[in-house]
Design goal:
3 helices, three-stranded mixed β-sheet, 3 strands, alpha+beta
């Protein structure tokens, strides 16, 4: 429930007895990475804060969905030609690392 993000990404959380299950669509940085700042400094920060709130409950958290990031070069067929492209910027990859 964040008005700034409600029209951007989608996050559904189901609470089970022993864990939380989150299905998320993370907005991507867009063509030419024109939305990289929003993605990394707003959406990712809010999502990470949400995860931290759930962690306080002491249950494991399973995150699935479209996170719109290729974390490592092995996650892409042609990493060199994708460097700096949306979903494979160093900013997105570092932000994803913080969430792990």
């Amino acid at each position: 429930n964040n008005e700034d993000h409600d029209s951007e990404g989608r996050c559904i959380t189901a609470e089970f007895q022993h864990f939380y299950l989150i299905s998320v669509y993370t907005p991507n940085a867009g063509a030419g990475c024109h939305r990289l700042d929003y993605r990394v400094n707003e959406w990712d920060v809010t999502f990470q804060e949400y995860i931290q709130t759930l962690k306080q409950e002491g249950k494991p958290i399973i995150i699935t969905g479209d996170l719109n990031v290729a974390h490592h070069e092995i996650d892409l067929a042609r990493p060199k030609s994708n460097e700096g492209s949306a979903c494979f910027t160093i900013e997105e990859r570092n932000s994803f690392t913080k969430m792990l």
